Amino acid sequence: MTSATLFGLCGAILIGLGLFELITDPHPLRKILGFNLLGGGVFLVLGVVARRGAAAGYLGDPVPQALVITGIVVAFSATALAVALVVRLSEVSGRVSLAYASSEQTDSDGAEG
Amino acid sequence: MTDATIVLSSALALPGVLLLLCLFPSVRARMPKFAVIAPVPALAAAWFAGRDPSIVFATHFFQGHLALDVAGALLLAAAAILWICAGLYAATEMRRSRNAGNFSAWWLTAMLGNFGVVMSADIASFYLFLAAGTIGAYGMIMHTMTPDARRASVTYIGFALAGEASILIGLVLLAAASPGHSLLIRDAVAGLSPSPWRDLTVAFLALGFGLKIGLAPLHIWMPLAYTAAPISAAAVLSGAAVKAGVIGLIRFMPFDAGSVNVGTGLAMAGIVSTFYGVAVGITRANPKTILACSSISQMGVIATLIGVGLATANAGVAIAAAFYGAHHVLVKGGLFLAAGIGVSDRRNRWLVFVPATVLAFALAGLPFTGGYLAKEAVKPFIGEGAFAIFAALSAAGTTLLMLFFVTRLGSASHDPRGTPTASGLLVPWLATAFFAIAIPWLSLSLTDAIPISEVNSIADLWSAIWPILIGGGLVALWLNQKRQPREIDVASAADIIRRMMTICTSTVERAEAILRQWQAGSISLLAVTTVLIVIIATGR
Amino acid sequence: MIADAATSLDAASTHGYLLVLAIVVPVGGVLIATAVGGRTAERTAFAVIAAGLILGFAILLDVWMTSRPLAYVLGNWAAPLGITLRADGISAVMLVTTALIIAATALYACADFTIPRDGLEARAPFVFWVLLLAVWAALNTVFLSGDLFNLYVALELLTFAAVPLVALSGRAEAITAALRYLLFALAGSIFYLLGVALLYGAYGTLDIILLHQRIRPELAVSLAVAMMTAGLLAKTALFPLHFWLPPAHAGAPPAASAILSALVVKGSFFLIIRIWFDVLPGSRSLAAAQVLGVMGAAAILFGSIVAFRQARLKLLIAYSTVAQIGYLFLLFPLVVGFEGSPWSATAWTGGWIQLVSHAFAKAAMFMAAGLIAQALGHDRIDDLGGVARALPLTVLAFAISGISLMGVPPSGGLIAGAYVIRVMTRMLGPRLELPTLSVKVDRWRQSLPLSLAICAMLLGLLPLQSLELLQVGLPHFLGSAGR
Q: B48, B118, C86, C442: which is deepest, by most CB within 10 A?
């Protein structure tokens, strides 16, 4: 088993863990962590692609590495935005949850915006 | 530009321009008066087209094609006259109404739809004008804003949308089978016989158009709508607008190739409608509702005629149906105007009573009226054997129903003090009554295209008279009987439908509440991914 | 044709700089607006919108006149290493649609989001103008980019710009809706990224044209396409992945809802089209297209019925969006199923007309609903009686967009008729006295949704035969009519 395959499997496991967390855990902060795990797994897969696509004499294909760096930046911004929303939500309403409030959908209070 | 282009385009352009002018409030308020002249170009178009049936009267712009053949010219002429007379009536009727301008806007939309449907020669414009007519009718029915009007308009639009959905499916299938992807109705229908979906296409079209003309059991909207609408609106709707379904049947049914299944079905539904309309009509008290039920009955006769023509692959029924329909346009419209005037005015009551009675007999086919000619036109197709009995019975039933209407007209007085009727209401009524009797004779002398056999033999006259006598006798019996008939409430069927729909929709809403949860959504994401992977991987 | 474009890969079009400007100008606007702030943010937005309209029309004219796609190679580095910007027929049409709708929305939002004269900026107006430009920049990149990873970045930019728009009002439900939207959209884009990784691993390039030439049917491609499609479906809110959309679009301010419903969901849909018709080779999987069609049909039924049951106007319109998105996906089985026959091109044209018309109609509807809610103080459907006399132009706009959604030909939306009729009946209903308007609504503001609605209606009059413009730059399989 080459190191590339090992890392690939690792990435797959991380993706699985991240997905599980994202789907099942009710708290939004943990969902954000799950998303980060998911992202980490995908970046590992990209790293494996870099390794396997390496031409003779190089250690790794530079293009997927560039993709990983961009991806890390994107994931970081996403996490920042999500955490900011969570913080604001807890300030405004005290409880942080993605579930629908019971008054929603039948609430007929005033106009938005 | 050729004559045909000018005349045909102006027939649609004038109502269209007036409709656009309705955007300005000051013009809109005075629109009921202007709307009276809107049908005049259409009348001219019908005149030019009908004069010489050998000339092809057609034009096109962009993708829309307009054309008028003899059948279309007949219906268009009758409809145009009715719109003019009813427009005069409406101008007086709407004088005191607050929303007169809005009413005119709906009026013009319905008129545009009516004329457009008769003149369209390609599938897309036909559907467009059909939809316009439905929208205009909806607005007119809803005009008075009473709870009854709202219920009637919602029922109407529900049935109309269902009918248009069926028609749309049929039109799409028709266009798919059309040779060379031509959207002309003529080409598409001609190309229908070799199509593998032929029966399905014809069935969908017949179902949709049957809904639009109120064939039993899809007739529930008609009594509600015509009772709730203002008089002038009811006149044009029951007279002219409902003929959209008739022109649809005339244009789209493949008479050359024929279709036994659909034709038989249409004919049977027509026969049921003919008698069902009479049966329900004699239990009602409101003259407008009785007229609506009579419309159901008359449309049943037309449907039977077309059904027979379809089953026997006889193309001649088209003109006969158009002729019969044109007569009905004027008679029904006129009778609605009469119902609106009523007989409370002591001085003028005979001006209402006498022509109304004549029209009532005309509808039943009294000799030397236009109705007699209409029945003669229909006879070659449904004049033999069992159908002869059907024709006689339907004439008897019509007499029964229409004489009952006249008596209800007499007893439903609006004002015991007898206020004088405005001349603005009487003149249109009398004009319509005159045209209803005269137009069939006039059109007979103008064109040779209408196949009517020898009119003057005694046997023919007697075969027309005796069903009327029987009907008269039945009316006397019916009026004398002491038991109060229970009014069959057609609205209860609509309520059942509404309740079923509420159950369906609330189930869907509860499913949505489940699907809204995060887990459900994200598991769906995984499921969708897996399904796509499997299908794409195995599909290659 | 793809083949022609490949040989001219190195030769970018003479007016290719227009494509760069189309992306750089909105981004420049975002930077300036953020840096300077205050009233300049609003003024910058309008300047950018004016420039963007001109650019959009210029690109459309160029593509139309030359009947060739417009291309630009960034930095003159050719593929497989470089990134190409490419505007074919559908890109040009979407660019113009976006520009027009954003312009109308900006005019509409003037009244809601003015920055006060003394320059002390409030959070909401400042954020709105900046994000409007950001959404526009992201959309333009989505429509113009020719590289799959570039498209990923554009997609993320679109999500990050759209999410705060949802939360703009600051209320708890709005923030929750925004959070839900963000997390689900992120899940979707990670799936997309995984697909991109697989494709690169298999073929060594992410350029759309090169991929089209190199792709062969194999397991990696199936996995990649399935994952990318699924991720994009989550962002486009196709049933059953639609649950985030109604609270998000209904909870946003009306101007933002208009942008979200009309444009943002179309961005990810555009990407699905790109992948299916530009990246994948000739014969697509009909079964997969039918799966999309079935989900679309379910979306139509489901969305329309639930819309009918809603008590609030904005939620009704949001569920109507769910239904209309289903219509968009009917394009797939129709185009793939009729491949090779001229009907394919007709289905293609019909689908795009439907998309553009829906964008206009939905924006108009949300704007109209916003005006009504502002005037009455609420948006409960049952209490809308008499609004037709108070705000006639607005109700007319709503009616026209409702009719165009319902399906005056060529599209068929008759089930949508139920909820449109329901709302119209209420609005036209009688009221003893005129409803008291808490806020007076200007006439010119009412005319904005009206003009959008009329555009939507007029689109229905376009001939059904294939518009040559939409065929520019497409693979040749789409029928013989038009290249």
A: B118
